[in-house]
Amino acid sequence: MELVRLGSRRDLRVDFFRGLALWWIYIDHIPGNLAANYTLHNFAACDAAEMFVLLAGYGAGLAYGGTLNRQGYLYAAADTLKRAWTLYIAHIFLFVIYTAQVAYSASLLDRAYYLDEARLDVLGDSPYQAMLQALLLRFQPSLLNILPLYVMLLLLFALTLWALRWPRLLLLGSFALYMVVRFTGLNFSGWTGPDWYFDPFAWQFLFMIGAVLAYAPPRMPTIRWPLDVLSVLVLLTGLVVIWIINTHPPFLAWVPEWAIRVVIAQDKTGLHPSRLASVLSLLWLVVRLIPMQAAWLRSRGAALLTLPGQNSLPVFCSGIFFAFIGRLGLEYSDGLGMQFGVNVFGAVAMLIVGVVTAWYRSKGRAPVRPPSPLPLTVRTDTD
Description:
Layout: H1 12-28, H2 48-71, H3 73-108, H4 113-117, H5 122-125, H6 127-135, H7 146-160, H8 167-184, H9 200-215, H10 225-246, H11 257-263, H12 273-289, H13 300-310, H14 312-332, H15 336-362
Helix pairs in contact: 1-2, 1-13, 1-14, 2-3, 2-9, 3-7, 3-14, 7-9, 8-9, 10-12, 13-15, 14-15
């Protein structure tokens, strides 16, 4: 069993789990949401962000790797830069909408802490400078840091796209840059103090792994059980770590300091190795347990996630907007009825965005019948 190869039919597993990641991101962005107790970060040393970046790299390798084969590096890099530009425009649009949403709610409901939590309070002190820094991607309010990461990953990918033809070389260079981050903390600086929440120089390694898996998927090993066991052990270790940190933190006093540095996955910014191992273990188990041809992936139930996953950019952007509405709902009432309503609202709203986006993408693409040939006419000349 392998990941889908270039030129083969669409792998619905990618769409399904990308949609699931978007759904988890929506849930985790709502403070007080009880459903957040059941998202990925409660059961593994990684979360939806790692899934999203890995699958984004896979999608990039599939799309631009195909262009690389057909038309060469220049065309593939141009398409990659075009996509990066689209994401940049989407981020700026989302920044404006989200800022207006939070600021208006803070004013209307007299909740100034909304601005502090979103790190939008600097707009009151230096509005013009804040707008400039937002355009430069150095000002990233809370919850608005994934798209800037994605933009930078695509820019890095455009520079290294030619190396897809030598996947081992690409992964070696990507891993070297990742290790530089681990030892030096290399990162982009932020405007208001901290560096970027997602360090592009670290997260590019996960992105490149996804791209290589799409462009040149490796052969499945003949003996697979060692990787099965290793993946399960990695995930179980993550569960133990989560149990210690969240439920029994005093146990940390019994853990050697070196083990804490190696195992405890608190460094999300620099993509801690345990987070990387966790998401790759999940990937291996998914490939092993879910066939690409699984019938349930084509069911109507799965479409609730595959359709948003196929239209991830508008669904993600709208999910940020919907999540803040969900927060307002839970602050009004955090009962089970409102909890249920907020999560159903988000699921339905993002599904509608996915449906509408899919319709716009497909409209006008129906095959057009060629016009019927004009009937032949015979001209007769008369005297």
